[in-house]
Amino acid sequence: MEIILKENVKGLGYKNDIVTVKDGYGRNFLIPYGKAVIASPSARKVLAENLRQQAHKLEKIKNDALALAEKINGLEAFTIAAKVSETGALYGSVNATNIADELAKVGVNVDAKNIDMVDAKTIGEHTATVNLHKDVTAEVKFNVVAEEA
Q1: What is the mean pLDDT of residues 26-55?
Q2: Does 58 map to a domain?
């Protein structure tokens, strides 16, 4: 089944993409929750017209994402303090929410849902990827250190 996405769906595609999914996934999840519509010929024509009219807006959004990616890539590595056991293992983990909070402290507002990373469960250097646009990503480097008692 071919569908047109009405919003970004992680692992599937971005808004206005035409993707092929299994029939049950489309009929039972994507379409009822308003995340997609069936890619009929008339829906394709409407999508093409909308994209044509929004081309300059989309270009501005992409340029803003590129500028933000440049700003993020220019940042120095963050240092995040976490509670650590005597053996050096973290009591929790450093996740995307922690990275989003650190970015907000330097004036870069990013939704934690747009940050891809494996939760950091050890002390040391780690990297997270920030998805700003479907064509634009930035990498954030951070160090996890032991919290002072």
Answers
A1: 93
A2: no
SS3 18: strand
d(CA 116, CA 129): 5
Domain extent, residue 37, equals 2-53
Give, in degrees to the nearest 5, the angle at Cα 105 between 81 and 58: 125
Taking only Cα atoms into account, the Rg of the chain, rounded to an integer number of angstroms, comes to: 20
Q: Which long-range contacts (CB under 8 A, 24 or more apart) does 59-68 make?
A: 61/133, 62/133, 62/135, 62/136, 65/132, 65/133, 65/136, 66/133, 66/136, 68/108, 68/132, 68/138
Residues 40 and 115: their CA atoms lie apart, in Å, by 33
Three-state DSSP state, 128: strand
Confidence (pLDDT) at 1: 94
Both 125 and 80 in a single domain?
yes
Q: What are phi and psi of 63, to 5 degrees?
A: -65, -40
Residue 93 sits in the same domain as residue 138: yes
